[in-house]
Amino acid sequence: MDCLRDHKQGRRKCDLVQLPNTTKEFMCTECKNQFIKKGESSDFDGVWILLIVCLLFFVFLLSGCSKQSKLLLIRIADSSASALNDPQQLKASKDTCFGLADASKTGDKQALIEVSQEVIATDPAMIKDSNDSYSLCHQKTESKGQGTYVCPALDLALEMSDRHPETPIIVLQIQANEGEEFCPDTLKNLANKVSSRQGKLLIIGSTNDGNTGFNTNLWSSLKDLPNTQFCNQNIRSCVKESIQQIRSK
């Protein structure tokens, strides 16, 4: 069907034409082809837009999955003479250190607080390479004297976590609190602070058979608190898996 034309301007009239004696409507061939091409182009553009949106959404999901939260890893270790002369304590200390190294990532921060008569600590430092964490585990710990004054170390760990924005994971590994009274309020305050930051407090129980009261105090004070975990068996795996769980949240 030929297209009707405007006699004054000579242009096609792309209007629907109703044929006489019928309810059917037709459009001329040229106009029909023109509109079909436009429709196809519009649909094609819509497909491209949909593909681009899906691609951007996929990239967003991948970036979200690959993002890993940075952690502040603080280890409180007993460096008293009695702890360093206990083979079980030494092995547990090594397992704890290697568990931390296994789970640490570049960009995390780590700090060591050594406890004896005095508190000796390294300020949290950025982990630039996985070897940084493992090299710390191979260092030989020297005795810092008799007695274990753990309460100041708990206060220091709390202060460190307040100064750094990373999610805190604090590992407490003390053989006994020799020479001081047990400080349950300080310990609970630290545990609650860590929990409020979506971190975790890991307790590596004492191996000192003659000081079972210390383990009992730890358990009684912390057993009902959230984000607090006791690792007394398969210590390396326990520490590693606990850290990985926090990182994946």
Show the helix and strand layout.
Blueprint: E1 4-5, E2 12-13, E3 17-18, E4 25-26, H1 29-66, E5 71-78, H2 81-84, H3 87-103, E6 109-115, E7 119-121, E8 125-126, H4 130-138, H5 151-163, E9 167-173, H6 184-196, E10 200-203, H7 212-222, E11 228-230, H8 235-248
Parallel strand pairs: 5-6, 5-9, 9-10, 10-11
Antiparallel strand pairs: 1-2, 3-4, 6-7, 6-8
What this model shows, in words?
With 249 residues, the chain is an alpha/beta fold. It is built from 8 helices and 11 strands. Strands 5, 6, 7, 8, 9, 10 and 11 form a 7-stranded mixed beta sheet that branches. A two-stranded antiparallel ribbon has the order 1-2. The chain has a two-stranded antiparallel ribbon with strand order 3-4. β6 and β7 form a beta hairpin. The relative contact order is 0.13.
Kindly provide the radius of gyration, computed on alpha-carbon positions and rounded to a whole number of angstroms.
35 Å
Q: How much helix is in the residues?
A: 40-55%
**How much beta, percentage-wise?**
15-25%
Distance between the termini: 68 Å
**Taking all residues together, what is the mean pLDDT?**
78
Largest sheet geometry: 7 strands, mixed
Extract low-pLDDT stretches.
21-25, 36-42, 63-67
The coarse silhouette is elongated
Structural class: alpha/beta
What is the element string, with H for helices and E for strands? EEEEHEHHEEEHHEHEHEH
Oligomer: single chain
Query: With helices defined by DSSP (H or I, 4 residues minimum), what is the helix count?
Result: 8
Beta-strand segment tally: 11
